[in-house]
Amino acid sequence: MAIFKNPVSPSIAWKDIEKLFIAVGCILEEGRGSRVRVMKGDIFAVFHRPHPSKETDRGAVVSVR
User: Fold this and answer.
1) What is the pTM of this model?
2) pLDDT at 1
3) Looking at the 3D structure of the chain, how many domains does it have?
4) What are the residues facing 37 on neighbouring strands?
5) DSSP calls for 12-56
6) Rounded Cα distance, 41 and 61, in Å
7) pLDDT tens digits for 5-39?
8) Distances in Å between the alpha carbon of 59 and those of 3, 4, 47, 63?
9) Which residue from 50, 25, 55, 23 is spatially nearest to 36, judged by alpha carbons?
10) Cα–Cα distance between 32 and 25 in angstroms, integer?
11) Element (H, E) at 61
């Protein structure tokens, strides 16, 4: 999986990260603007969808890990 490769890839599509969250049983909720709430059990995180590009920056990939 590209998300776990080093060095961190700057070209992972956000839609692929969302698919990964869903595949591992997370619940995604739309927030305000480009925000996405991700919940799994008692773990909660908020991410911003990248725009205008569709690729996620390296910092967000590290946070997703």
Assistant:
1) 0.85
2) 75
3) 1
4) 29, 46
5) EEHHHHHHHHHHTT-EEEE-STTEEEEEETTEEEEEE---SSSEE
6) 21
7) 899 988 899 999 999 999 999 999 999 999 999 99
8) 12, 13, 11, 6
9) 50
10) 23
11) helix 58-64
In single-letter form, the type of residue at position 13 comes to: A
Strands 43-48 and 35-40: antiparallel
Burial 19-42 (b: 16+ CB within 10 A, else e): eebeeeebeeeeeeeeebebeeee
Range of 29's domain? 2-64
CATH number at residue 39: 3.30.920
